[in-house]
Design brief:
The protein is α+β, with helices and mostly antiparallel strands. It is built from twelve helices and 15 strands. The chain has a six-stranded mixed β-sheet. Helix 5 runs antiparallel to helix 6 and helix 6 runs parallel beside helix 12. It is elongated and about 140 Å long. The protein starts with a helix and ends with a strand.
Length: 418
């Protein structure tokens, strides 16, 4: 009986201890659940009703901070920009703004330049930061990336400045020449000489205005609205005919070759202007008694066949530094030579826009004193016609370097056109 009593007593004591431990564990669990954690700080109930939904549809990067400067809510864009790191706002000027707004309740806005995350080199990120109180305890920070907008604005500003300069040059020359004609009214030989110069400047002004119109048209119009199959042979013949006089003056032989009976899909006028600009550049930048060739061929790529039109010259060539910028508007490899040939610096920019809007591309291979080959690649008629919709907007890439292609492979012997 004593043994049974001892066992019963031990069992009773064990039961009491188990109950006490269970009760303590339950109390501890309740207290632990009420304690704020890092995860609970990011849950929706902390924010006022509807705020989380609004922040999720904003284009700006959004960060919500509490009274201890801890991040309560942050959008994925805020993490991508490097605004939030380790649950804290990582940009000190923005953190100072949030503290000032929390103290006085005033809305603040400032523009900042931030280093790119991870590198610390290259172009800085331009952002606009706006801070406003959100309720009695929280502060809302909205950050908008202005880098691309500033770059586009710089491109447009440079374009306007270049247009003004290019227009002022021939207009000023015409004004001076007209005064010279008036002063030399009694000298027929001088009048004839000045009148000839006036014709040259008037032609340069006309070409500049026309190319500005062409560039505006190819940037604003959708070439595929009036797209049709266009014979490559006709485009080549038209480009050669356009430059026949200049080539004859310099005794330059123009030849066409490659695969016959090819068709591309697009706007005939824009395609003719693009190929004509390439051939005209080849003639203008080639020495006398040299050769300019235009070759066409079909190349197979994923998604459909493409047509390559290669324009090759034996001119002065292009340096590696210039090859990165030749497709920029108003950029000239040799400004003095461009003035002599009447170049405006818009021809290759037009080619680039036409190629991009038609779902193609233009590349260049060149070596100094060996010549250049510009290759215009366009979708073949009947192939995939929605390629242009997948191509990036060329306006956002005006300052990007061009892709250098390998030297164009030899094609069948070209045929000299009459």
């Amino acid at each position: 009986m004593d043994v049974n009593a001892a066992v019963a007593a031990a069992a009773a004591i064990a039961g009491v201890l188990t109950g006490v431990i269970a009760m303590l564990a339950f109390r501890w669990s309740e207290r632990d659940q009420k304690r704020p954690t890092r995860t609970s700080l990011h849950t929706d109930p902390v924010l006022p009703p509807g705020v989380d939904t609004v922040l999720s549809v904003l284009r700006s990067s959004a960060v919500v901070l509490d009274e201890a400067d801890a991040v309560v809510k942050a959008s994925s864009a805020a993490y991508a920009l490097g605004l939030v790191r380790g649950g804290k706002l990582a940009i000190e000027p923005m953190l100072a703004m949030t503290r000032d707004t929390r103290r006085d309740g005033e809305i603040r806005q400032v523009e900042l330049d931030l280093p790119r995350r991870g590198t610390g080199r290259g172009e800085a990120l331009a952002v606009s930061a706006r801070v406003a109180p959100l309720g009695s305890r929280l502060v809302l920070l909205l950050v908008e990336d202005l880098t691309e907008a500033r770059r586009i604005e710089a491109v447009r500003r440079d374009f306007v400045a270049n247009v003004s300069h290019e227009l002022k040059t021939p207009v000023g020359a015409l004004s001076l020449l007209s005064e010279a004609v008036m002063d030399a009214s009694d000298d027929p030989e001088a009048v004839q000489r000045f009148a000839g110069r006036m014709q040259i400047e008037a032609t340069r002004l006309t070409n500049l205005v026309q190319e500005l119109i062409d560039l505006s048209r190819v940037q604003n119009d959708d070439p595929l609205e009036d797209a049709e199959p266009v014979r490559v042979d006709e485009l080549v013949a038209e480009a050669i005919d356009r430059c026949r006089h200049q080539a004859g003056t310099k005794q330059i032989t123009m030849a066409a070759g490659g695969t016959a009976d090819l068709h591309v899909w697009g706007n005939r006028g824009q395609l003719a202007a693009a190929l004509g600009n390439l051939v005209e550049n080849a003639v203008n930048y080639s020495p006398a008694r040299t050769r300019v060739g235009i070759a066409a061929r079909r190349v197979g790529v994923s998604g459909g066949d493409m047509i390559e039109l290669a324009v090759t010259d034996q001119g002065i060539g292009i340096t590696d530094k210039d090859k990165e910028r030749i497709f920029e508007r108003f950029y000239r490899v040799d400004p003095a030579r461009s003035r002599a040939t009447g170049g405006t610096g818009l021809g290759l920019a037009i080619v680039k826009h036409v190629a991009a809007s038609h779902g193609g591309e233009v590349t260049v291979w060149s070596a100094e004193n060996q010549g250049s080959t510009f290759t215009l690649r366009l979708p073949e008629a009947g192939a995939v016609r929605d390629r242009a919709s997948q191509h990036p907007d060329p306006d956002l890439d005006d300052e990007a370097g061009t892709t250098e292609s390998s030297p164009y492979e030899p094609l069948p012997a070209p045929e000299v056109l009459p």
